[in-house]
Amino acid sequence: MRVLIADSSPFVGTALGWELEGFGVETKVVDSIARVKVEIEAIQPDLLVTELFLKDGDFLVLAAYRPHFPILLLSTHQVAVDDADVISAVDACLLKPIKAIDLISIANKLVFKRPHCLNQTEQLKV
């Protein structure tokens, strides 16, 4: 599974990427919407993990990619996780901090229920 992680904090995004890689997930970490767009073309992710706000905009710009792959939003704000408008713009919304194993479990459900996701050859074993 290929996961693109967009987090405004390079340390947080990289730490999550390292954890996911420990479970066999390919990751790429970026910190802006502009970089997300470039990496979508380059790596064709199976899942996008993002947060509410990046340095050049908010996650709503990325919602246009939802037909191509699931989008999972991570937030430190309980209000955002419970907000109906936020929830309707993504496939899942989770409160930070999150354990990699929990994210993988949800990612598997999101990716493998979509027949058009790009890389569905094998579900991750967790």
TrEMBL record:
Domain Response regulatory stretches? 2-111
Q: Which InterPro entries match?
A: CheY-like_superfamily (IPR011006), Sig_transdc_resp-reg_receiver (IPR001789)
Which stretch is the leader sequence?
none
Task: Please indicate which superkingdom the organism of origin belongs to.
Answer: Bacteria
**Which GO annotations describe the biological process of this protein?**
phosphorelay signal transduction system
Protein name, per record: Response regulator receiver protein
Question: What organism does the record attribute this protein to?
Answer: Cyanothece sp. (strain PCC 7425 / ATCC 29141)
The organism that produces this protein has a lineage beginning with: Bacteria, Bacillati, Cyanobacteriota, Cyanophyceae, Gomontiellales
